[in-house]
Amino acid sequence: MADRHGQIHRERGTDVTTVRYRCSVPNEALRHALAEAKLTYDELARKVGVDPKTVAQWVTNEGRTPQPRIRWAVADALGMDETMLWPQVRAAIKTGFDREVRAVYPSYSMPATVWQHLLIAAKHEIMLCGTSPMWMWYYVPNLSHILRDRAEAGCRVRVIIGEPDSPMIQADEAATGAAVTLSSRIHQARQQMEPLRDNVEVRQTPMGFGRSVYRGDNEAVADWWIHGHPGTEFPLIHLQRRQPDGLFDQIAVKHTEALWETAVPVWPST
């Protein structure tokens, strides 16, 4: 029989065997959200990159809490706040404006997989706003194919690059003394995107110098340039949109959209 502590005792002659059990409570909020979104376990699993059995465990046991990165992906897929799906995480998450900061890096040490996910997972919009995004072709394998694929799937893809003849570019080249100049990297980036001109919108402006932002839907990475130092030493901030008019909207939306409005198309309209 079971005692008040949830233990079962069985008599075996003179021995007593104690078997502990714990009842799991289903996560009704998650179950309801899946039904509202008309998603199966398999479909949600594919969206967030887990096994369908893992999704089933989340639903059948509210005590099973995914890692933050997975929780955010689930919340985005279901259009809900993570604290509505897993109320127990309220005490462990930030509630102020800095809750949109996923991670910070003192240099370009962020894993390449984060850059790749930023673009591959985007469904609505990609904005690459950097003086020369040429380096991304090294960090993200098959980048041209990814950008074309996303555009053909209905995702708007925009790129803002710098103007190679800008005095700021010339000053940066003098300060860094890099063998491969910044102006040459701008030209290289433009050449890389030439075959994508039917899929990708590209504009130029000198005004984005020193403040790069790379956005995929509600996720973004921004960097700050350090004068006279190579790009590998620039600090990074990884952002996830969690609220209106927060850090994400200020840095990844308002800044980039203002630059886009004043930038000049690289290729004339046909």
Task: Explain what the structure shows.
With 270 residues, the protein is α+β, with helices and mostly antiparallel strands. The chain is 38% helix and 19% strand. It contains eleven helices and ten strands. The strands form two sheets. Strands 3-9-8-7-4-5-6-10 form an eight-stranded mixed β-sheet, with helices on both faces. The longest helix is centred in the C-terminal third of the chain and has 16 residues, at 247-262. The chain is elongated, with a radius of gyration of 24 Å. The chain starts with 6 loop residues before the first strand and ends in a 5-residue tail after the last strand. Residues 1-21 have low confidence and may be disordered.
Key terms:
single chain, about 270 residues, alpha+beta, 434 Repressor (Amino-terminal Domain), Endonuclease, Chain A, 2 domains, 8-stranded mixed beta sheet, two-stranded antiparallel ribbon, 11 helices, 10 strands, about 40% helix, about 20% strand, elongated, disordered N terminus
Largest sheet report: 8 strands, mixed
Name the CATH class of the largest domain: Alpha Beta
CATH superfamily of the largest domain: Endonuclease Chain A
Provide a count of the helices: 11
Mean pLDDT: 85
The number of strands is: 10
Structural class: alpha+beta
Secondary-structure topology with pairs:
Layout: E1 7-12, E2 15-20, H1 28-37, H2 41-48, H3 52-60, H4 68-78, H5 82-85, E3 101-105, H6 112-120, E4 125-129, H7 136-139, H8 143-152, E5 156-161, H9 167-176, H10 182-193, E6 201-204, E7 211-216, E8 219-224, E9 236-240, H11 247-262, E10 264-265
Parallel strand pairs: 4-5, 5-6
Antiparallel strand pairs: 1-2, 3-9, 4-7, 6-10, 7-8, 8-9
Helix pairs in contact: 2-3
